[in-house]
Structure formats: C-alpha cells, structure tokens
Amino acid sequence: MKSVNTLSASGLGRRISALIGVTALSVASSVSLAAIVDTGAISISVPNNFDGIYFNIVTGASGTSGGAAAGWDFNFYNSGTGFEMFYPATGGCVVPAAATPCTVLVNGDTVGPTNTYATGGTRGTNFRTDGTRTVGLRFTNEATGVINYGYVQITNTTGSGANLGFPATIVRYVYDNAGVPITVAPAGPPPGAELALTQSNNAGGNAFLLGSTFQKTLTVTNNGPSAATGITVSDTLPSQLAFVSSTCGATAAGQVVTYTIPTLANGAVNNCVLTVRIANSGTIVNTASITASAPTDPTPGNNTTSQQIGPTGGGIAQTPVPALDRNMVLVLLGLVSVIGMLAMRQRQA
C-alpha cells in the first residue's frame, strides 16, 4: 500500500517526486486529434518489485521511477503482498465507489467523465489471479492539456505468497485523444495476409494421348488485409505429368515445380501458367500448395488445391494408335484386293 503510514521514507520520497513530475510536466509531445489510439498486441513486463513500472500512455515512456517516465499516468508494482496499481492525483482508475479497488471492465463498458475514479494506491487487488483483464482510467494528455479516457489490459498469473498476480504483463492499451468517452472493445484482427490458391486447366475433359501437352494455371489471391511477401508455391506433379515450361520462372526438382511471388498487394491476384506433358498413363490428380508467405495467413486451409484432370472419373492417358505410312497403306490395299478376288472366285465355283 503506497500511503504515508506504510511507505518507507525513500519509497514515499520517490512517489512524491513522481507526482510533482506529473504536475510540472511541460507540453513536449504531439498527437493527432480526434482519434482512437490502439496499440494492438504488445508485451510490457511489470517488474515484480516495489518500484514496478511507471508508464506514460501518450508518449510510451516508461521507467522504474516517475522521473524516468515524465508525465506518467499509472504505476503497476508489487506492494509486498502482490500486484498493485498507483495513480497520480490528476488521473485515476474506474472504481465502483470511492476507496475501492479498480473495477475489472468488460467489452461494452464505457470509460468517460461520468465514471467514478480513484487515485493513489491499493487499487489492483482485482488483478491477482490468472487471466487478462481491463482497467479503465483517465489521464491528462500533455500534448493537448485535455483529460483523456482509455483502458489498459493486463495479463496476470495467480502466483503465490507475496507474488500474487505475478508475472504480470501489459498486453494492450487504448485511448481516445479527443477527450471523449471510449467503449471497451476487443482487439482487432492481427495483421495478416489471407491467401487462397486455386487451379484450372485447358484440358477440356479429354482423355489425353501420351506425349501431348496442355496448360494448367495456378492462381494466388491475396484477400488481405495486409500485403503478402515471400510467397512460395509448390506444385507436385503426378507421375503422369512432366514439366515443360512456365510463365512465372518456375523450376522443377523431380516432380516438384516451385516458383516465388516476391510481393502481392491486398486484393491482388497472381497467375502462373504451367505447360506440362503427358508422360505416363493413369488417372491424373494434381496437388499444389502455398508453402511459405509473410505475414501469417490467418486461414491457411485454402492454401492447398487438388484437382483431377481429364474426364470425370477417369482422366486416363491413352496410348496413341501408330500412324500408317504410305507403303503400309499400299500393302493393306493389296491385301484387300486379293481377298476380294478370292471371294469372287469362290462364288463362281
């Protein structure tokens, strides 16, 4: 508990200095007006000691003393019994009533001027067991001089003894820099590039002849929201097919054909046309996959495509009938003539 009757002389001195630092802070930073600032997923450890971490929400400055984080807006620390919170006189956390611990907020709760706020220490006892929780707070935006409202999300573990709530990590904070109320909301989707791979061909459902060629097209679509880089596509050809050429610089290692797409913007489509030859008879089923990309694909299930090529239920490569040369045609005509003459004589007999 950070109060006059429980703090050591040195500890009390540090808190008083920190509060003075908040009051005397000059305007030294700038932010865009009328915008919700959301850090998204972060990971800032709270030191498991009496100093803990002092944090300035607007500037992102932090330290183990108020002087190291000018204009600090909250101080998370270990009071000696577990996780605690300390707020300057110009700020405070949302509480159900005065002199009570900070409220654990849920999605849909509002943080604004109509809430009740408490300052000082002994505010974090609701944040001492496993889980990620949200605390609402008000603070002075030193760039504008306006009271802002926001919330901080902390992941705590139960701990034991004097370490209840530790380890503790700040995982996200959000505020509205226009000084208007803000509603607690879940974090948006993490940055990612949702890629999809499909394939088509110009086989037309024919039963192929050995040695013939056709084209198959691999299509990669980026459904966003981010651009994708370092995309690698691998097409494992069945034994019935042999790689001939491509429009995308693909290379073959045995039956595996691979090519890369350096970058693909959100909403963009990339097509690669492969020319392949019928090498062996048998049912032709072709499978291709996206094997690498960045950032993470949130739905990788559509990164693989498999397709049967040729007639439905068959796709059998056929052995061609040998072509007849001119001499063979003449021989066959001669045989037909002889057979015809013999047949006529037999009738006359």
Characterise the protein shown here.
- This protein is mainly β.
- Helices cover 11% and strands 40% of the residues.
- It is rod-shaped.
- The termini are far apart.
Keywords:
single chain; 349 residues; mainly beta; 7-stranded antiparallel beta sheet; 5-stranded antiparallel beta sheet; rod-shaped; disordered N terminus
Residue runs with pLDDT of under 50 for 5 or more positions: 1-33
Give the mean pLDDT.
84
Helical percent range? Answer: 10-25%
Q: Give the helices and strands as they follow along the chain.
A: HEEEEEEEEEEEEEEEEEEEEEEH
Give the distance, in angstroms, between the N- and C-terminal Cα atoms.
Answer: 131 Å
Query: If helices are DSSP runs of H or I spanning 4 or more residues, what is the number of helices?
Result: 2
Number of strands: 22
Largest sheet: 7 strands, antiparallel
Radius of gyration, taken over Cα atoms and rounded to an integer in Å: 37 Å
Residues in β-strands, percent: 35-45%
| Helix/sheet category | mainly beta
Topology diagram in text:
Blueprint: H1 9-24, E1 36-38, E2 44-46, E3 53-55, E4 62-63, E5 74-78, E6 83-86, E7 92-95, E8 110-111, E9 116-118, E10 131-141, E11 146-156, E12 168-176, E13 182-183, E14 193-201, E15 213-225, E16 228-236, E17 241-246, E18 251-253, E19 256-264, E20 269-278, E21 284-294, E22 304-309, H2 326-348
Antiparallel strand pairs: 1-12, 2-12, 3-4, 3-5, 5-6, 7-9, 7-10, 8-13, 10-11, 11-12, 14-15, 15-20, 16-19, 16-21, 17-20, 18-19, 21-22
